[in-house]
## 1
Amino acid sequence: MIYLTRLDNQQLIVNADLFKFIENAPDTVITLLTGEKLVVRESAAEVLERIAEFHCKFYRRAGPGIVFDTSLPAGGAISPEESQGTPGKGRS
């Protein structure tokens, strides 16, 4: 869940996993998977940053031994052995 601000300065909390699109037009318009649209004060970059922070915190709690390497292709989770360079395992 992330905190955002409507154009009338009302704060709302949104489930970041429900985002389908984020558009700058000129305000930031967020389209949810349900089709509902939200217009918020934060820029698209700020919204993306908050989503990234949320996911980082969530996945750190959900799987503390998993290392997420953003330099890998999609689905880039690597095991603790791979992150420590254990011989015989990991990427070649």
Note: Strands lie at 2-5, 11-14, 19-25, 27-32, 37-40, 67-68, 77-78.
## 2
Amino acid sequence: MAIDGAPVRPIDHLLLRGDPARPALDGRSGSYDYAELEQTLGRLAGWLAGFGLEPGARVASWIAKGPVAALMPLAAPRAGLVHVPVNPLLKHAQVAHILADSGARLLIGTAARLDTLQPGDAPADCQLHREEDAACAMSGGPAIGPSSAAPDDLAAILYTSGSTGRPKGVMLTHANLWLGAVAVADYLALSPDDRTACVLPFSFDYGQNQLLSTWYAGGCVYPLDYLTPRDVVKLVERRDITTLAGVPPLWVQLAELDWPTETAGKLKRLTNSGGALTRPLVAKLRALFPQADLYPMYGLTEAFRSTYLPPALVDAHPDSMGQAIPFAEILVVRPDGSIAADDEPGELVHCGPLVAQGYWRDPARTAERFKPAPPASRYGGTAVWSGDTVRRDGQGLLYFVGRYDAMIKSAGNRISPTEIEDAAAAVPGVVEAVAIGVPDDRLGQAVRLLLRGNASIDAVADHLKQELPTFMQPRDIRLLDAFPRNPNGKIDRVALAQEHGA
């Protein structure tokens, strides 16, 4: 099958594109060429298939970066299963929700993470297995060959937080993942000589695509769970890294370090998503890495990647989101569904084959975001209505204007205020809780938690540290005597954000 002239294959065929003798995966756990990694993939898929789960069953992984984490996005689909990657930073309550919502039948986790699960966190029919078991199977177990999956077969469910409610699972097919890899490899001009540092979590679509696009191009990936930004510098120096993807807070930290000229010169391309780069930061990166192309990008998990700004335009248009990536049709739409004029704000609508299949087992929220494409779309079908306001200039470049919802974006993470508020409300003495995003030079946004009641701030902070991952922790907590109300009697979040969001 071909889409827009591009052949689409099952995602687990990806490694078959590479030169068998060239390096495909390198890291602290060893190195593999494409032939070795394909064989290892077959063994991991064979191990998964050996559990006898029904086709399409969900298998979750809650592990740090390494060969198992890198191959699970391919191994689960090869075994006829659906992969559910879990952010390693999440704690037991968030993991319990993902396992229950996805109906996971198998969870692979590190021993330390599995030990944190409490009774009832895993569904009764969900098997728990240690990462070491999977690694052992990869080293010498029975292997299975490439799958014959159809392009529209489900391959993965990626969980992402919206502005309200629990994280929701975005359903991705083989075609979604394959075309995402093709698109990014194309506009980044990746080649077999490239070595990509994978420092972002594989549970993010941006992080997972670091692997898939590099492998599509026949290059080598180096997964890294870094402790400090200096670890990234050391990696670039020691492994001759050519491609580095990050989010704005990481770029802020990296730009503050002393980069030896020779080390900085190894990088050929820098890519950014998960928040906009500021003009001063763009200038710093251009000065620090003069030989590297800089790619600002915009995307959302529901439609993978939407836009990128070609490096040649960065200096002249540092505030722009750029233009549509391959296989994406990006429209700026008025409330009546017609196309906005140049420089007229409108909603960004993403059409085409990169659009996901909706939210797993959530038809109500699917209907809110996945709607029929505007009449002007050349693709038609279902489109993602982003909720983000943008404008298009006379050259066709897009600029971000604002966000409709209250989602907090901090250090590249999309944080649900409701999840923080629910955790705070569990503390005795908390009557009401509202989480808002406040500007932060390093994070983009930080979380500020507003409380009403007579609870101790220290008690709330201690509870949140136990229940929420680090990136969800409030920067500060404030007790208020009262919350403003709107005419319907609901908390006026806009008023709270205006008064306490600075």
Note: The mean pLDDT is 93.
## 3
Amino acid sequence: MYWILKKLSNMFLTLFGVVTIIFFLFNVLPGDPAQMMLGQNENSEQLTLIKKKYGFDKPVFIQYLYYLNDLSPVSIHFNESQNLSFLKKDKYNYVGLLSFEKYKVVLKTPYLRESYQKNGVTVVEIIKNTFPNTAVLALSSITIAIILGMFLGIFSALNKNNWIDYSIQLISTLGMSVPSFFSAILFAWLFGYLLRDITGLNMTGSLYELDDYGENLNINLKNLILPSIVLGIRPVAVISQMMRNSLLKVLSQNYIRTAYAKGLSKFQVIKNHAIKNSLNPVITALSGWFASMLAGSVFVEYIFGWNGLGKEIVDSLNTLDVPVLIGAVLTIAFIFILINIFVDVIYTWLDPKVKLE
């Protein structure tokens, strides 16, 4: 129980820090969001109304407090006469806890507000529409990384200090050195343009695409191939190196020699004893890389035209759509924390010596 409470408190403190940093960071960016929302239809009267509606006429610190109020599950709901538009009760369902003359304390679902650029569309709706695509891409990439990285790491360890081992280490080093955006451009140009007649792959495309009549959305899995491979290159390199080093360390332990002395074959020793005990550092790497894929997919998604959360972040940066930016970053941070908690639990299964407390 103490461990759970400690993890939850750490999670809320981390999310609070993330909210604070990104809110002030994005609100000091050059440009006026109100002007960007109006575009060429801008006039002084409309500009004043937009600033009042979204609170742009308030000091940044007051805007920050209003945002925390919207985001917090327990928040203050002002009476109608003193309310800002984004604090009105029709924006979310709530349960009243305490009632006062000018305001009431309520329990509600966190409200991430509406997009500045997509009228009437909430940030939650945008995340719901884009995050599944990013999750599919990240899961596909990490699956490739796990299978290929562990295979290469085991194969390299079993062929220590020969040409196979050196070749795998060289490839791994190159994989870790090449940035994802460069790999994305290279793969898109090579396999989606030069060799398109052979591969049948497109330079750009998303998981769902409109049919020829522009009416129905169809799943196009071949568009997943290139971005998932590109996003998986660096974790493959990291996992293979960590698996190799960890397995070599385990193979030098006394209990491995004891297993051989009992008459077990090399395959049985590696399968039943060595590999499982080599997985702890690999699991640590996987947790970090899976969360990093959600954030690092920004460039890959944008280059391949993959309609995920990463591409939405880039589009929101171009239009200074602050609520979408903050909501997307918060989503990634929240998932990162959940993954780390899940990994802590997995440790206890892999290594009984590791205790939750």
Note: The longest strand covers residues 94-99.
